[in-house]
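Rather than argue in generalities, we have chosen a single entry, letters for residues, whole numbers for local backbone shapes, without further comment.
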Amino acid sequence: MKKLMLVLVVVAAACAAPGMTAAIALGQPIGPKPVPQPPAGKPAEAIYFGTGGPYIPQAEALATARLAAIGVPGRQEIRLLTYADVIAFTRSRNYLYDPGREIYFVVTSAAWQGRGGQTADFTCGSYITLIDAPTGQVFAVGCGGAESWPLRLPPQFGP
């Protein structure tokens, strides 16, 4: 059975369209990814809750986000969001963070090198840094796309 499963994964990966993963080719629905839920029988407990402040200064969050740039960053924008806003945008969740936790969402126009994991490394034209507003800890950094500014951002950034 393991050999059959391995063959299915290899065949599915070989037949998948560029950008599709073997998991999608093996029958996972295509379309918007549902917001993850905690594993059944193992409830996750948040340990980082909304604080209401104080927060690190925005200038410090912007400087922290610039550290990931390759070369000199151009435009940067920052918004203070709740983790619920981040979940709605990314459709990804860390259950240690309560939805009310405050997160700086920083967008930087600069080249950023990502690690491809199972694929080759890649370079983006812009990137997004999520920073825990009360502590200043970097929560995540991700590609904003090939363009110098992301085509899609949370509604708090406006049109």
